Amino acid sequence: MTQATTTETTDVLLVGGGIMSATLGALLTELEPTWNIVLAERLDGIGKESSSVWNNAGTGHSALCELNYAPQNPDGTVGTAKAVKINEQFQTSRQLWATMVSEGKLGRASDFINPVPHISMVFNDAHVRYLKARHEAFKQHKLFERMEYSEDRDQLAQWAPLTMRGRGAGAVAATFAPEGTDVNFGALTRQLVDHMAANGAQIRTGTQVTGLTKQSDGSWVVSTRNRLNSEDTREIRAKFVFVGAGGGALPLLQKSGIREIKGFGGFPVSGMWLRNTRPEIAEQHNAKVYGQASVGAPPMSVPHLDTRYENGKKSLLFGPYGGFKPNFLKQGSLLDLPRSVRTDNLYPMTRAGLANLDLVKYLISELLKNKTQRVEALQEYYPTADGDEWELVHAGQRVQVMRKDKEKGGVLQFGTELITAGDGSIAGLLGASPGASTAVPIMLDLLKQCFPNRHDSWQGRLTELIPAYGRTLDSDPRLADEIMNHTAGVLGIQ
């Protein structure tokens, strides 16, 4: 006999146990401590999908080393607007983390963030000219004033010894940003969720959302089932729903039927890393070294040689190597992509696909690589690397946004897209990089859009949590020094 469905009510339902839901949940815990919050995660633990330490680069995206955030203009100059915006966003995230650490609401900062310099390194004359122009443009901005540029091989060897050992003749240059970090977003997610739970939030792992139905009073009835016990089904009536399910957000928002999701599709991109966990190798490299992307490669596939921390232990990652699987989550279904196709998004997806055949070609070439070819790519950044010391591990799935475009019919959009219903009763996040690093400003935007009548009353607490809330650091050098020095001190980074 089938067990009857349990019905309950809550103020807020967070779908997905990653960094986005955890950030929103932590903010609402601080802003509205009397609200009831339920978090539903389909896996058996928190932060195990895209937020997991091995499923993303953990760069703490601040545009210090990611060259794709600073495009070169036709006249040879370099645009800085996107890079400055991303850096500002990351500084906002750092402020919240620092406040919560200092108030004792998060655990040890070193469990989720560590100082790791960020380096951009290039290997031919044209790229050297670009990198020099980028540095010239960046040094005019307060947020990038500590960045150094060099073409001197001895200097580069001091910054990143493994990259220069055994390197042959030819142009090479790099920029060095000492304030870079490595962020374990899985560990941070778990700390944020622990804080929510300590303040009354209900955390339900192994819980799959199967349906969302809008009610006449504006609330949502969300159907769930226990993945370990199919007879355990529940209906949760929520005043507000946030879908922070990574790649799984698109099909869930489609199930909701809101008009704002019409025309959106998703293009899944998988990835792999080479990983070296040998202490004697990891101790010789303390940096994240980013280069130029291959032609047709998505921004998140820019090659980089990274220092990573997990539970205090250093390892090295190189990659990612792109690939294609039709599932929207690493632990998802191969039917995710075909099931997401609707009459409203078929044309935009088709047009976007036809306009990005170079990406398809790139992904196919990546899939066909063998271990030897992957090691050869590694040796462009670490010339003396021994392939036998590196293991191949799978990264998380990313689903790039595909959307309608009046001129082109459909476009493939890199970055993130916040989808909010007109009445503010439900919202979700699509897309990928720089994602996790900008979780706090993204969730602040969500609060403005979904809770306009409460936002004024939250200003005081928001300013306590984020001291520079509503202000920009790059345009105020004195404020920037004050805020950045404070957060660096609290978090134990440079």
UniProtKB/TrEMBL annotation:
The keyword Oxidoreductase applies. The keyword Kinase does not apply. Pathway: Carbohydrate metabolism; tricarboxylic acid cycle; oxaloacetate from (S)-malate (quinone route): step 1/1. It comes from the Bacteria. Belongs to the MQO family. HAMAP family: MQO. It is an enzyme of class 1 (oxidoreductase). Pfam families: Mqo. It catalyses: (S)-malate + a quinone = a quinol + oxaloacetate. Transmembrane segments: none annotated. GO terms for biological process: tricarboxylic acid cycle. GO terms for molecular function: (S)-2-hydroxyglutarate dehydrogenase activity; L-malate dehydrogenase (quinone) activity. Its EC number is 1.1.5.4. Keywords: FAD, Flavoprotein, Oxidoreductase, Tricarboxylic acid cycle. Its cofactor is FAD. This is Probable malate:quinone oxidoreductase. Gene3D superfamilies: D-Amino Acid Oxidase, subunit A, domain 2, FAD/NAD(P)-binding domain.
